[in-house]
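Journal club prep, notes for RB
We'll compare a predicted complex against what the paper describes. Inputs for the cobalamin case:
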Amino acid sequence: MEQKTVVLGVIGSDVHAVGNRILDYAFTQAGFKVINIGVLATQEEFIHSAIETNAEALLVSSLYGHGEMDCRGLREKCQETGIGKIIMYVGGNLVVGKQDFESVKERFLAMGFDRVYPPGTLPDTPIEDLRKDLGMTID
Amino acid sequence: MEQKTVVLGVIGSDVHAVGNRILDYAFTQAGFKVINIGVLATQEEFIHSAIETNAEALLVSSLYGHGEMDCRGLREKCQETGIGKIIMYVGGNLVVGKQDFESVKERFLAMGFDRVYPPGTLPDTPIEDLRKDLGMTID
Amino acid sequence: MDLTVRQMDAEEFQRQRQEVLGQWQTGKDVFFEEAVAYQKSLPKSKVFAEKLAEGKEKGITYAQPRAGVALISEHIELLRFLQDEGGADFLPSTIDSYTRQNRYTEAQAGIEESAMIGRSMLNGFPAVNHGVAACRQVVESVQVPVQVRHGTPDARLLAEITIAGGFTDYEGGGISYNIPYSKDVSIESTIKYWQYVDRLIGLYEEQGVKINREPFGPLTGTLVPPAISHAVAVIEGILAVAQGVRSLTLGYGQCGNLLQDVAALHTLPVLAEEYLAKLGLPKVMITTVFHQWMGGFPQDEAKAFGVISWGAVTAALGKASKVIVKTPHEALGIPTKEANAAGIRTTKQILTMLKDQSLPMTSELALEEEMILAETRAILDRVLELGEGDAAVGTVRAFQAGVIDVPFAPSRYNAGKILPARDTTGAVRLLDFGNIPFDERVKEFHRERIAKRGRDEDRDPSFQMVIDDIYAIGKGMLVGRPRG
Amino acid sequence: MDLTVRQMDAEEFQRQRQEVLGQWQTGKDVFFEEAVAYQKSLPKSKVFAEKLAEGKEKGITYAQPRAGVALISEHIELLRFLQDEGGADFLPSTIDSYTRQNRYTEAQAGIEESAMIGRSMLNGFPAVNHGVAACRQVVESVQVPVQVRHGTPDARLLAEITIAGGFTDYEGGGISYNIPYSKDVSIESTIKYWQYVDRLIGLYEEQGVKINREPFGPLTGTLVPPAISHAVAVIEGILAVAQGVRSLTLGYGQCGNLLQDVAALHTLPVLAEEYLAKLGLPKVMITTVFHQWMGGFPQDEAKAFGVISWGAVTAALGKASKVIVKTPHEALGIPTKEANAAGIRTTKQILTMLKDQSLPMTSELALEEEMILAETRAILDRVLELGEGDAAVGTVRAFQAGVIDVPFAPSRYNAGKILPARDTTGAVRLLDFGNIPFDERVKEFHRERIAKRGRDEDRDPSFQMVIDDIYAIGKGMLVGRPRG
Ligand code: B12
Ligand code: B12
């Protein structure tokens, strides 16, 4: 099976690095090629890396609470740079405070993310989802 | 100052003895004559002791949750036996479960108690109140 | 029937049985052989003694809540919730206070009123009124073993019904369910009532049915020094084993000082084994149960979580077999099922985090153990002396003499002469020894420790100190220091 | 300016000062003499160093929350709530993440958006944007000392504004607020930024104003072995004292094993005093701060209370001067003020209950202490060796060489070669030593302990074990055992 590439990073002024390390490990173990741009990643870095590596998906983490402000406009920037259809997942502790996840999810879906994950998500679920979204069959 | 008598006890099938010991000590220290009928006290025991000792007040404890059932009819029985006007206080954990105290208080006032005390009441407050209700001045 | 520690004779047991089963109409549905068969049909996972043995081997500390409401379906819902949402390892059925006083008519009224108004008017589950079939419904509705928890001086009918009903553990004892729970019932009579219960369980054991017995360790739950509750636990263990009980969980209520509490947990089975052997009784399976603080709680839920956690930590570090869990509603009233489950989850988080840690032995811990051993032996030896070798007889005489004396107990059969108080580290000592037969060395130790506290607080030890200690945990402290 | 541990020269300081105060418009309101006068006008009860000294003498462990929101009035309301409803002994102002990256324009946008929509869009208090007067408003609105808590590599302007604003304690350091908090900032530059901060505080000290400094102990908060965070804490202490700081609170983040954590608390001031003396630096007041578990939390609030409590117990038994409190919302998001106050109350209940108890010395505890001392000395001695006696230079070289190496740190100036894992009792050891200069005896100790765990779990120690440990507390365990 050909290896699919994903760009992984923690957006904004966010330095939470532990989940990033684990996602890197887990997606790599699952057979993906992971381009890990690490913490403190800008929207531009996500997009440049995706274009450069011909990636199929952006895996955006935001833990520190500013996710709403940091993620705004990412889909539009993708469109402007010609990768408008790229799959975009986002996860972590997306907003400030303990908020009802359904409403958080809606806000991020409205921003153009394909899937939105609640706090504490284990890697298995997004890996499963990504295989499905990329039409990879698992036998 | 002449010593006023109070009857103290824990009503019903209730065996909680610690608060009773402390109330006994505190009311005695405060100058009252305490007739302590102890735990597992029936309505009849409260009334007999009050009549026998010419007491001014009944201090009824109920901790274990059955207070509502155990206290019903006490005022009426007092009336039947000719001590209808005796001061009646009740305190402890009066009902089953954590309930809004205001509604508990109303239920017990409606039963004919003069004062109703929430869980964890320290002796100072009822001692103060009783002095007031008995018209004892503190100088 | 004369009081003796020896096994009840079969005839006497049968005579009483007729009487007991006639005490309330549900008694007629108890059939011993059928009940044995039912008990044997239970999977191992629902048998207390089996799961306790497994935990003992693996070094697990299990968590168990208290819970009971008036109506069957609500009670089942409650237990399932505590199992599924709380992660309870063992379940209880806490019996209401009318049933505990054998007032089945009032319990019936409570059931009816509860059904009418739609909330439990009873502070527990009236198992006798509900009967054997209903108990089995409870046991069958959950996946873990279920125990009867109560506080009943005469619990013979309750035992008949609940054991026939599939419960595999029975709490209480002739002392521990008398002295803290009644006023006018003689110890002689409750020992006899409980010998009936123990004999009943002995009969089940003889048929290959394992029923665990758990003397109620904490007694009045308020500043009970370890030696006193240990003495009671060992005596009830002796009384039970003499009637044929083969699986014992001995209990102890948290005092609050880590070293003293861990020492208490360590010494409890040691003492029980020692005295069972001394009296020529068979070796039985002994496990321990630690009760999170049984005295007055803080009303604030966050603070209550702190108290609960401290109990969980002590249970874990002291390697108790089981811990009985309090809830954040403790100070206010019977907990909702949510509050109850929360208490279990807090506890289990700590138990699992601490599973592989323990308190290493130190000279301080060794000293606490030595004191508890010496103190408990002093009491027990005097009990046996008073009973001329017979623990049952000795117990009655010991209470008369104040050789065993439980602080703050409501019973008039208890001397009520001792006064406990915390020392400056929070360990519970005796301020007034009453007639407890401690030797001078032990007494000096207590005096010295309490005197040190007196100096730290610049006041003479007195009843005011005891009162301060009673309120202390509720007010967010352990030692009731005067306001400075 | 060349990097050196020696005190910054006055000219260089003044040169930077101009630049720093010009970084954002609020810088122009800082006047040193006026600020000294303001600081001197504060009552002792609002001065961190004074209250810490009092606690140290009395053996009190204080509790402090983290908290900060975008708008002044909400921030004050929040702090008051934590003081009045939580009983916080010290208050924080946790700074938002834009300010931490010196992105004051974005912070401004966050303030405005927050004002508009009526909830804080920032994860902290943007003190620089609010300025000196606003900070004083905060300090004047509460009764206890207030500290700046952040995670800012270049915190010079923030220090100028908040100290002039009446804050009496400043968290952070050139290593601890770089390595866990940035990606591309060199250690050389952050050490210099922080020497500015420390020199600024030295200048205040010379004027008789006490400002306490607190290096950030927990680093990445995730399985950081004590020796590594201790080495960083001691170095930051050295750097600070060399610039004139006279009051230090050294920090350590809970690992979870009681003995290891207590040993860590005991050894931290010992090591700091030892190396300060060795380098001929003055004796200063040293206190300790213990951070309740800084890694991933369980989402369930009841379980979170368990984790919080275990941290409180450890702080109390280890006799930390102060404990930083987590909240039941930790796993989900910035806590509400109610959740934050609840965390404090749970913690304080435990601190007061355990005030007069401590963990007695045992051979196991002594061994942990011995290991931490040996390990930390090995690192520090190599640092000084690399720096040819200069701790600042040595630190930069030590990070280059991987002699100091922080697990899971985002910084590319960190080697990232070591792998920590728990042993079978939950103590954090090293599975891969990278270039940490431990001697063979120490390495053998780590290997043996981790190997034992491998045997217990019937698997070879690997990165999977590390991952399991990272998730463990969140899943209700301490040691990340494989599902059995
Ligand atoms: C210790 C204790 C026990 C001990 C009692 C030992 C003894 N014989 O005394 C033991 C373990 C035996 C026990 C048994 C039971 N208990 Co109990 N017990 C407690 C506990 C933890 C402390 C009580 C205490 O001693 N407090 C200290 C004293 C000083 O305070 P106090 O009793 O509240 O009294 C003070 C004030 O309330 C006030 N006050 C009291 N009465 C009056 C009256 C007047 C007129 C005034 C002015 C003031 C006043 O002044 C007192 C002095 O300050 C409380 C919970 C708590 N409060 O934390 C539960 C509690 C009272 N028990 C409870 C229950 C249900 C039981 C049991 C049914 C067992 C069970 N289901 O778990 C049995 C009942 C047995 C029976 N038949 O009564 C419940 C009651 C629930 C409810 N009302 O909804 C409580 C609230 C626990 C709970 N949340 O479930 N218990
Ligand atoms: C460790 C930690 C830190 C460490 C980080 C060290 C480092 N450099 O990595 C330190 C101490 C430095 C730190 C600093 C701060 N932190 Co912090 N931190 C945590 C903590 C306790 C654990 C994070 C962690 O490592 N978890 C373990 C990993 C494995 O899980 P994870 O990160 O959640 O990632 C997993 C999943 O979420 C998911 N996932 C994550 N991203 C994505 C993306 C996709 C696409 C998918 C599919 C899945 C996915 O998969 C990962 C693997 O399972 C959390 C709270 C918690 N979770 O318990 C707070 C937390 C994230 N921190 C928080 C905050 C606010 C901060 C600070 C601002 C300080 C403060 N105010 O207290 C600073 C911010 C610094 C900055 N500029 O970013 C808040 C965020 C609040 C919010 N969102 O409302 C939290 C939630 C704590 C809280 N409740 O206040 N923190």
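Talking point for the session: Chain C touches chain B through 41 residues (CB under 8 Å).
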